[in-house]
Amino acid sequence: xxxxxxxxxxxxxxxxxxxxxxxxxxxxxxxxxxxxxxxxxxxxxxxxxxxxxxxxxxxxxxxxxxxxxxxxxxxxxxxxxxxxxxxxxxxxxxxxxxxxxxxxxxxxxxxxxxxxxxxxxxxxxxxxxxxxxxxxxxxxxxxxxxxxxxxxxxxxxxxxxxxxxxxxxxxxxxxxxxxxxxxxxxxxxxxxxxxxxxxxxxxxxxxxxxxxxxxxxxxxxxxxxxxxxxxxxxxxxxxxxxxxxxxx
Length: 248
Prior knowledge:
By secondary structure, the protein is an alpha+beta fold. It has helices at 5-11, 17-25, 116-123, 143-151, 190-197, 228-240, and strands at residues 3-4, 29-31, 34-35, 42-43, 49-51, 54-55, 63-68, 97-98, 107-113, 131-138, 154-155, 158-159, 164-171, 176-183, 202-210, 213-214, 223-225.
């Protein structure tokens, strides 16, 4: 079955789909000996597809679950020279990348893969894959503030989606609180910005669950391969858009 040429190139692990489009426009891709420059061009997996004269080959799809350490960037490179999460995978040969992000100071569950379609499905806003975080803050959230979090907090880029919150501990004397929170959307630095809104800065943020996955048994910086049934479950969950999870 024919597919868009950039999709076949991306699936082979040569480049992202957007970068593949650039390669096509630049005339660096041939199909069965003919240069192709049209972005709408299609090809079959059995066609002779070359990028810069090198034949592409389908890349085995891999899926990893990492317990991300602090002070690592959730990307494949960093223009400020900071260490990225790829440093945790020195022996992995595939061109993997993170599914979504955890910010520099945060820790916890992060998926990495070379499967662009899977990653897009996990990150697409309409799928709402649930994630649970354990958060420590300076300050104590009031009942009204907790109610607002459960309803939606007004941030610069719009109202947050309703979130479930469970208080783990609160120390009035030291003005410290720990809670778990379940989110189904992926606004940038959403939890930290919500806490800034309440003037309760985050001192620790750990993603403890991504859907049904957790980092139990993994020290920070360690990873494991996802099992096939786990990948299938994630895809099914993203298609359904709901999961019976509550923060604990």
